[in-house]
Amino acid sequence: MTESQRIPRQEMIDIIARIAGEDGDHPTIMPGLSVHRHSVSAKPNCAAYKPSLAIIVQGAKRVVLGEETLVYGASDYLLTSIDLPVLSQISLASPEEPYLSMVFQIDTTRLPALLDAIGPEAAKAPASPRGMTVSKLTPDLEDTALRLLRLLDRPDDIAVLLPLVEQELLYRLLLGPHGARLRQMATTESQPHQIGRAVSWLKEHYSRPLRIDDLASRVSMSVSSLHHHFKAITAMSPLQYQKQLRLQEARRLMLEERLDAGDAGHKVGYESQSQFSREYARHFGEPPRRDVGRVRRSLIGRSSGEVEMLSEG
User: Fold this and answer.
1) Which of 113, 125, 103, 81 shows the shortest CA–CA distance to 16?
2) Taking the chain, what is the end-to-end CA distance rounded to the nearest angstrom?
3) What gap in Å lies between CA 67 and CA 281, rounded to an integer?
4) CB 51 within 8 A of CB 108
5) Which residues share a beta bridge with 76?
6) Residue 166 maps to which CATH number?
7) Within 10 A of 129 (CB to CB), how many other CB atoms are there?
8) pLDDT tens figures, 66-105
């Protein structure tokens, strides 16, 4: 890393470390922006990623999407263009050099107007349709992200300057190596946009029995096209996606609302307790009671911020 690259990175580290004074996930006064600090690596934990830009300034993280694993660290960013259930794990962190990152939620409703301004000449076919990807942070994108963080120290400027910095951030992403993913998600008649509608329906109705032909009809796709493009974008079939939503919600219900495994499984749509236990153990590595008991024991003595982090991933 050159000296000119080190200076903005160090300033980002300083700002995030100051705002996130304790381990955990920290919302900020700025809508859509959160900062994160963890001093130790941890076991994989379930998480629900929304369209967002995540930048690690120190440490490293591993994200499991379907059967794929993405690893990213300092100087990388993770671009998520569609809602995705994942397993995430802080893989590099220490008290001396804690994991530090920022996450900015992408307001997809702002993309169409920006695309009109950019014009069709910027459109490029993505190398992969996957809805999550890792890339190296460019100087332009890093500079924009740093200016976003600096606004936290100037709250009176946020109302006026945030929309401008946000627009530049989206502009940089749209013109970047994976901007076509965002472009397609914002294009109404595109297949990624149709998959986005399917994902929205699954999130809202995850506890219902899934009939693929009905889902395909809802998003104006054939069954074969739905299967093909859904897996290409999410790395999962619609049924696997629904299963992850169910299991993550069941785990949350047991941890936060103290439901037992039977009630939690039934509430998320499982009719068979044995099937729920098998699929839960396959996904989380332990049967429900053992997994939830371990997580609860690990939370003893931790701050409420860390409890929230573990329950939400």
Assistant:
1) 103
2) 31
3) 16
4) yes
5) 136
6) 2.60.120
7) 19
8) 889 999 999 899 999 999 999 899 999 999 999 999 999 9
